[in-house]
Design brief:
single chain; about 220 residues; alpha/beta; Rossmann fold; DNA polymerase, domain 1; 2 domains; 6-stranded parallel β-sheet; two-stranded antiparallel sheet; 10 helices
């Protein structure tokens, strides 16, 4: 399909199943603060917008001070317990093996930049990613396309030559805004039902379908 020369992946819910580690870290903080832990599926629904939004969605009636304290504690605890159960989704290793040497690989996440890089270094060390970015001060988070466009420039490819793969509406909206090929990861934190409406060119039921779509 088309002249795709780079594939930019979201991290959480797309390359890596991080749900248990994120959920357990947030529950730990909630209990510390005298609040009730949440079911893992509720955490799943709240992921994809970064830490601040995760906490706001988890505690919709909390005041600003409690939100800020929860975010602070979560960042510290999660960074210390970043990779306990986190692992690549099934089929992802085979897909990355196949894509290596055929297209450039990159990662674009709303997870803090340092944590994003650690997951890639420790969980995905077998593969070479040409560029890895997480949330950084001074750079708007997805769905703003700034970071994605910055990556395309670094990789030396036009935005239209990039496929952007992600499991949330945020990822799809990022791809559309950047002029990239938006592909939905239906295997991740969502069932993929909303990704078509967000603008996905195709919602993939499994990682291996990416190879057929890209025809590489």
């Amino acid at each position: 399909m088309t002249d795709i020369r780079a594939v930019i992946f979201d991290l959480d819910g797309t390359l890596a199943d991080t749900l248990a580690d994120v959920g357990n870290a947030l529950d730990h903080v909630l209990v510390e603060l005298g609040l009730s832990p949440h079911p893992l599926q509720q955490h799943r629904a709240n992921l994809g917008w970064g830490v601040q939004r995760l906490v706001e969605r988890t505690l919709p009636d909390a005041d600003a001070a409690l939100i800020a304290e929860t975010v602070r504690r979560f960042r510290a605890y999660y960074s210390a317990h970043l990779i306990v159960d986190t692992a690549p989704y099934p089929e992802i290793p085979d897909v990355l093996d196949h894509l290596t040497g055929r297209v450039q690989l990159a990662v674009n996440s709303n997870k803090p930049h340092a944590d994003t890089c650690r997951v890639i270094v420790e969980v995905f060390a077998r593969w070479q990613f040409a560029d890895v970015v997480g949330a950084r001060n001074g750079v708007p988070k997805k769905p703003d396309p700034a970071a994605a466009l910055e990556q395309a420039a670094k990789l030396g490819v036009a935005p239209a030559q990039c496929a952007f793969v992600g499991d949330t509406d945020v990822d799809i909206r990022t791809a559309v805004a950047a002029g990239m090929l938006p592909l939905g990861a239906g295997w991740g934190f969502r069932d993929g039902s909303s990704l078509g409406a967000a603008g996905a060119a195709k919602v993939l039921a499994s990682p291996r379908q990416l190879l057929a779509v890209l025809d590489v």
